[in-house]
């Protein structure tokens, strides 16, 4: 299949518009602002929110579309990356084609349109992984620094775009669950989210290995703070899954009972910190710098099989193509937190997930 340049598939005027909007300044918002603004989803507030997104989203989408066309090492020409570029250009076109939002009728139509944009981009992560994997096969992995920096910017921006769209769409829910403002839970229990994520990870472990180590969780079960539960669930699931796999594989042929994984939740003044500790043998010091790079994984790569780009059937698992840890760290950083991994080779690994309790840090805007 011949590679089609964007200018062949999209009108020149659209490409010029993308470059114009890509130069405009992005506007970040904080968790606290989203929470306070969304706590009263009146018609007027929804209108203001839609008008903000009508201007903000095309800027963010345009920046990524431009970057997707100027990647090093020929990555921009990979079929999977071209597919992602087309999704971004189509979304930019849809948002720019939408007229000025003047009343609640316009606002409802706009909400349906951005909802469709979010669905269009559902498979961006595995599709980009496929493109980078196609590139990686033909080159030395030592040269991938520029690609890693691009992917960090790209995925961080994607988290922000999906958060803004999802938050706005969810504010239309006529029966929101108790203590929720859009995607944000104002009284989220980190213990409860950790427990749910641990159960999900253990069920995957059971499915793959036929057994799973125990998980012990320590902390104050009554402690709550405002955060996005889906983000925390994703991060905790990833960390626990890694620990379960390490312990399971280390003790698979041992007479000893596999030691439990310990999760400790600490509520500080600035941060809520969650530590996930395992005795899975740890990571060699030489391997530690690699764990936050994309495409580093010790598991089998699910993208080795050829995937039909015409369908959306890309493996949705995060295990195996080395995206779990770097993307988890981006989710932590998106609201002012961080993720650190400390390892003792020959013993085990401690992961420290820091979540900002104050909620007033601005979105990082790559």
TrEMBL record:
Organism of provenance: Arabidopsis lyrata subsp. lyrata (Lyre-leaved rock-cress)
Gene3D superfamilies given in the database record: Alpha-ketoacid/pyruvate dehydrogenase kinase, N-terminal domain, Histidine kinase-like ATPase, C-terminal domain
SUPFAM superfamilies found in the cross-reference section: alpha-ketoacid dehydrogenase kinase, N-terminal domain, ATPase domain of HSP90 chaperone/DNA topoisomerase II/histidine kinase
Protein name: Protein-serine/threonine kinase
One Gene Ontology MF term: pyruvate dehydrogenase (acetyl-transferring) kinase activity
InterPro entries: AK/P_DHK_N_sf, BCDHK/PDK_N, BCKD/PDK, HATPase_C_sf, HATPase_dom, His_kinase_dom, Sig_transdc_His_kin-like_C
Compartments (UniProt record): Mitochondrion matrix
BP GO terms, sorted: regulation of glucose metabolic process
Keywords: ATP-binding, Kinase, Mitochondrion, Nucleotide-binding, Transferase
GO annotation, cellular component aspect: mitochondrial matrix
Catalytic activity: L-seryl-[pyruvate dehydrogenase E1 alpha subunit] + ATP = O-phospho-L-seryl-[pyruvate dehydrogenase E1 alpha subunit] + ADP + H(+)
Residue ranges occupied by any Histidine kinase domain in the UniProt entry: 229-359
Family: Belongs to the PDK/BCKDK protein kinase family.
Highest taxon of the lineage: Eukaryota
